[in-house]
Amino acid sequence: MIPIEHYLLFSAALFILGLLIAIVKQNAMMVLVGIELILNAANINFVAFSQNDPNLSGQMFSLFVIVVAVAESAVALAIIYKVYQHYSTSDLDEVNQLNG
Amino acid sequence: MDSITEISLNAIAFYFLAGMSISSGLMILFSKNIVRSIFLLVVVFLGVAGIYMISNAEFVAVTQVLVYVGGILILLMFGIMLTNRIEGQALSVNHKRFLPAVLVGGLLFYILVTSITGDANFHQFNPKTEIPGDITSGFSNTQVIGINLMTNQILALEVTAVLLLVALVGAAFIVGNKLKPEE
């Protein structure tokens, strides 16, 4: 079998990539992409450790994480669309006021 | 003999899929084209789904393909179509803050790698059997997930259903135009 450290290293690499994408990119949509990558990295760890578990708790938890990720991205897209209507840009550095 | 070849095939598939996902992620990081980044995200999600499939998590893999590739990516494409409508300008994204990003990311990656390969002794969690669902019950993985969802995790399932409903109604309410009152 594949040793568990390799799963952990792979998910650590994916997590760092998501973090870098969320920091570096200026478009709000690309920040959302980075957050999705981070959630996927967490899911890989859950699935990797649930290989020993007869109850499959890790797989259950990763399914719930996927559902919450969907809800989060739907709400985030709605907010980004509203911000775009107000500021005519989706550049996060130019959105610097909260009173709508 | 059969099991040995199967294990090595599993390992080859794992490293191939992991390399595919990480290289696509790096291309997302360095690409300035938003649409190309979104389509590269398809490759990352499919690679991760393949790794779930190797790790005896078929149901999670199928859910990953259905939800991420079928749902979230379409949602992201629609978002980009709605929020980047400047005429005669290519869809590109600027990069900023490279130095702090590399500092934070490199340091965190160093900490993670040293703690994973260091004294933590993760060997004891190495997968021992081929199919975890078969150990006690004789059911397949997907059947165990279904039974769990209807018995132990029923509260979590209901809460998740309500959360999904609230989130989608909330998203529609934030975006939707208010109805004008009748004259």
Which key phrases capture this entry?
heterodimer, A: 100 residues, mainly alpha, Helix Hairpins, 3 helices, B: 183 residues, Four Helix Bundle (Hemerythrin (Met), subunit A), 2 domains, 6 helices, 70% helix, extended
Oligomer type = heterodimer
Largest sheet of chain A: none
Largest sheet of chain B: none
Main interface by residue count: A-B, 70 and 88 residues
CATH architect. name of the largest domain in chain B: Up-down Bundle
The computed structural class of chain B is mainly alpha
Helix content of chain A: over 70%
> What's the number of extended β-strand segments of chain A?
0
Shape, principal axes of CA atoms of chain A: elongated
What is the residue-mean pLDDT of chain A, rounded to a whole number? Answer: 87
* The CATH H-level homologous superfamily of the largest domain in chain B: NADH-ubiquinone/plastoquinone oxidoreductase chain 6, subunit NuoJ
The total strand number of chain B stands at 0
Radius of gyration of chain B: 22 Å
The ordered H/E elements of chain A are HHH
Order of SSEs of chain B, N→C?
A: HHHHHH
CA-atom Rg of chain A in angstroms: 17 Å
Structure, described:
Chain A is built from three helices and no strands. By secondary structure, chain A is mainly α. Chain A has one domain (4-87): Helix Hairpins (Orthogonal Bundle). The mean pLDDT of chain A is 87. By secondary structure, chain B is an all-alpha fold. In chain B, helix 1 runs antiparallel to helix 2 (34-54) and helix 2 (34-54) packs antiparallel against helix 3. Chain B starts with a helix and ends in an 8-residue tail after the last helix. Chains A and B meet through helix 1, helix 2 and helix 3 of A and helix 1, helix 2, helix 3, helix 4 and helix 5 of B.
